[in-house]
UniProtKB/TrEMBL annotation:
Origin species: Planococcus rifietoensis
InterPro entries registered for this protein in UniProt: ATPase_dyneun-rel_AAA, P-loop_NTPase
A Pfam family assignment: AAA_5
Domain of life, source organism: Bacteria
The name this protein goes by in its record: ATPase dynein-related AAA domain-containing protein
Single GO term (MF): ATP binding
Length: 688
């Protein structure tokens, strides 16, 4: 059978599964023993003009990696059959390499694909008249072969879990039989033989150990953790991994056999690792910020009524899934940790990514309500001074006239109800000039204890509202969140504002992933969530008191002592590079201490397993606390940020050199952010 004869079409779902798969291949051989379809003017060539005499170029690829089991089972495809495409079907890639500027396009492609590995996705086209499938493809990446042997080597796809997931969390899911999502490896393939996570390789013996989970085509559940083995990533790991793309890579069969030998010599089962762990004698000490506000009359919660931090995070995820809102788990963990440790958190990103919805979702998870302990303020472009937000004191009548937004009364009520959590959301806050209307807040954001007071007028002024005279205390029971768009309609944040804020750019999930979750998930209540995610939400209706919330915050008092030596070294180098371009920009002591505070407060579940790796948390803080200050024209910052061009891609600048000089996969989110800045410089000549 040549190129997919089939009597009837397969289902839409199965076709989509196959077309989401990644395959590693190369250009097919000329004179390929009759396996080349007879579509070209030169029948024995892997790249040639179409036989009809038009200008279209047809070319064929041979798969080197394992192909989807579903493709073989449903369509009967064998490994000798090639994949077919035309130049007009791969315009996105060909445009990038300058193909359409070439006079002799066939020779150009033959040279370009010679001795190259090609990462592609299969595309299935059904010809109704002949009842036949054509196996087409979409090229994603091309990489030069290291050796001639790779032309005849076979490769194994290896899923890589997000670098933000700690090995302890992955192992906990294996042990507890909780769903594990492999974003770039789906059920069209056989169960993966290996999985990479946080510096380790895990070996999966067979599908009885690691079972496909029917809720989602990218999810799996471990049934026999005692058979899942683990080894540390060997020193030659990076050299032997080919075409690393998103959360998948490929390794040769020879390297696969070397890994198997390592597992036989050094492997230890996940269950054995768990059994060998010592029982911790002391629980993690939870230190609280001492508040000078009287707690008299506050409602004390019993131990049973308190909500653990891990349970709250599951509650937040449940509410998002129930409302069909798609946020990455990392964004939820990062937002929560930022709110715990920062006086002000800004949610940024393109319009429509759910910034405002996430802020309101967090309020709902806390069980706070608008009109009571939640204040939503839509910022207007006309806001130019503090009185637009707060109001003003009439010197003639002595009456303090509050702004229509009601912020002053809200903060005062929060100070009078210290047992309740409160939240203020400034929506689209940079429509106005933030440093002008928000100046009174900026000066007190970093103060502590009794000093953290909002003073509405001088002490000598005459005001009939005596309760305002000494100022309004801003306690640890109030959270401030802002949302912002970054485009030509908005104002820039000053370094002074950025110095005191975490700026989170939400990561948009793919529409394909969002659709998959929307179709497959049916979460209406906590029990549905527990059944699908295998995570029980305890006390789902319990409101989070300020005492409960602040029990999650660790105040170590270490300041710079919370940072490791290698982290301090990176911060020093970043400051040196940034300040050499602008003496007023860099890494301040305030920022370094706040980063340490964030790292101290990475949330854990009830078993002490962190939701984020420390490396990922540090990466987030560099992106949110430091790189957010980088903006300007190409002539000013290109050497700092790096260059981007369509043909060669991203060439890192001085900052990326600092961030990539350490461990494997170091600061990948920050590097991606710098690459985006470089693209903006290429396109606009400046970056905001």
């Amino acid at each position: 059978m040549i190129n997919g004869y089939m009597n009837q079409e397969i289902s839409k779902e199965n076709r989509q599964l196959i077309e989401e798969c990644y395959i590693l291949g190369r250009l097919a051989d000329d004179n390929d023993g009759g396996h080349l379809p007879r579509l070209g003017a030169e029948l024995d060539k892997a790249i040639t003009y179409h036989k009809d005499g038009d200008d279209r170029v047809v070319f064929y690829l041979t798969a080197l990696s394992r192909e989807p089991e579903l493709l073989k089972r449903l369509l009967g495809k064998n490994s000798n059959e090639v994949y077919i495409s035309f130049d007009n079907k791969n315009k996105r890639y060909l445009e990038r390499i300058g193909y359409y500027d070439e006079e002799n396009r066939v020779d150009f492609l033959r040279e370009h694909f010679n001795e190259k590995l090609i990462l592609f996705k299969p595309i299935l086209n059904y010809e109704t008249k002949k009842g036949r499938y054509h196996f087409n493809f979409e090229i994603l990446l091309v990489e030069k072969m290291d050796t001639d042997e790779e032309r005849i080597e076979t490769f194994l796809p290896v899923p890589i879990l997000s670098h933000s997931i700690p090995a302890t969390r992955f192992e906990r899911k294996l042990l507890d039989g909780k769903p594990i999502e492999l974003n770039d490896y789906n059920h069209a393939f056989d169960v993966p033989e290996f999985i990479i996570c946080d510096g380790y390789i895990y070996q999966i013996p067979d599908e009885t150990v690691f079972e496909k989970y029917n809720i989602n085509s990218n999810m799996y559940i471990c049934r026999k953790p005692e058979q899942v083995m683990r080894i540390e990533i060997p020193e030659d790991y990076e050299r032997n991994m080919k075409m690393v793309h998103k959360e998948i890579a490929f390794t040769s069969n020879n390297n696969r056999l070397s890994w198997i030998d390592l597992f036989n010599e050094e492997g230890i089962s996940v269950q054995e690792i768990e059994d060998n762990k010592k029982v911790e004698n002391e629980e993690r000490t939870q230190l609280k910020v001492e508040s000078s506000v009287s707690q008299a009359g506050s409602v004390e919660m019993s131990v049973e009524e308190k909500v653990s931090e891990g349970d709250f995070i599951f509650r937040l995820d449940y509410l998002a899934r129930k409302k069909k809102l798609r946020y990455s788990a990392d964004d939820l963990y990062n937002f929560h940790t930022s709110l715990k440790t920062s006086n002000f958190t800004i949610l940024g990103g393109m319009s429509g990514t759910g910034k405002t919805q996430l802020a309101m979702l967090y309020a709902e998870a806390l069980k706070i309500e608008e009109g009571d302990n939640l204040l939503f303020i839509p910022v207007k472009p006309s806001y130019t001074e503090p009185s637009d937000l707060l109001g003003f004191l009439n010197p003639i009548t002595g009456v303090y006239t509050e702004s229509d937004v009601g912020l002053v009364s809200f903060i005062y009520n929060a100070s009078q109800n210290p047992e309740k959590m409160h939240m203020v959301v400034f929506d689209e806050m940079n429509l106005g000039q933030v440093e002008h209307y928000f100046s009174d807040f900026l000066s007190i954001l970093e103060l502590e204890g009794d000093q953290k007071k909002l003073r509405l007028f001088s002490k000598k002024a005459i005001c009939v509202q005596e309760h305002f005279r000494s100022g309004i205390h801003i306690g640890d029971n109030i959270l401030f969140v802002g949302t912002a768009n970054f485009d030509e309609t908005t104002r820039d944040f000053s370094n002074r504002m950025l110095d005191r804020s975490n700026v989170i750019i939400l990561e948009k999930t793919t529409f394909t992933d969002a659709y998959k979750h929307e179709v497959n998930e049916n979460i209406e209540n906590p029990k549905d969530y527990e059944n699908q995610e295998k995570n029980e939400i305890k006390n789902p209706d319990t409101a989070i008191s300020s005492d409960n919330y602040n029990s999650w915050i660790i105040q170590s008092g270490k300041r710079l002592g919370s940072l490791e030596e290698k982290e301090l070294s990176i911060l020093d180098k970043l400051h040196e590079e940034m300040s050499s371009f602008d003496s007023q920009t860099g890494v301040s002591f305030r920022i370094a201490e706040q980063i340490g505070h964030y790292l101290d407060n990475i949330p854990n579940d009830e078993k002490g397993v962190p939701f984020l790796t420390r490396k990922t948390a540090f990466d987030y803080q560099i992106k949110q606390r430091i790189l957010s200050k980088i903006r300007g024209h190409r002539e000013q910052i290109e050497k700092l940020v790096g260059r981007f061009d369509e043909e060669n891609g991203y060439s890192g600048g001085r900052l990326s050199i600092v961030l990539t000089s350490g461990e494997r996969h170091n600061c990948e989110k920050s590097i991606a952010y710098l690459e985006q800045k470089a693209k903006e410089l290429m396109r606009n000549g400046y970056t905001l």
